[in-house]
Amino acid sequence: MPFQLEALPAETFAHLHMLTDAELLQHRAVRRVADGDKAPCRVSLRFAQRGETLVLVNYQHLKTESPYAAS
């Protein structure tokens, strides 16, 4: 089977864009502005445009209490 990329569900992260910077920190997230053309978005599967506001957050894609847990 070939490797396939899948976008993350946008609704999982939509609420983060409405939070203050202090509230984002409670989610271990930060707000940044793209300053180049190499800022990939794992939700839209596109590169952010220069000047676009981004919310950077860790995503735990395999939530399990085992050696296979990953984020």
Structural notes for this entry:
The protein is mainly beta. Helices cover 8% and strands 14% of the residues. The protein is globular, with a radius of gyration of 14 Å. It contains one helix and two strands. The chain has a domain at 10-57. The protein has a two-stranded antiparallel sheet. The mean pLDDT is 86. The protein has one helix at 21-26, and strands at residues 29-33, 53-57.
Summarize the structure.
The protein is mainly beta and 71 residues long.
How is this fold's topology laid out?
Layout: H1 21-26, E1 29-33, E2 53-57
Antiparallel strand pairs: 1-2
What are the segments in which pLDDT stays under 50 over at least 5 consecutive residues?
A: none
Number of beta-strand segments: 2
List SSEs in N-to-C order.
HEE
Shape: globular
Structural class: mainly beta
Main beta-sheet strand count, sense and barrel state:
2 strands, antiparallel
* Mean residue pLDDT: 86
**Beta fraction:** 5-15%
Total of helices: 1
Please state how the strands of the largest beta sheet are arranged side by side. Answer: 1-2
Helix percent reads under 10%
How far the N terminus sits from the C terminus, by CA atoms, comes to: 23 Å
Q: Cα-atom Rg, whole angstroms? A: 14 Å
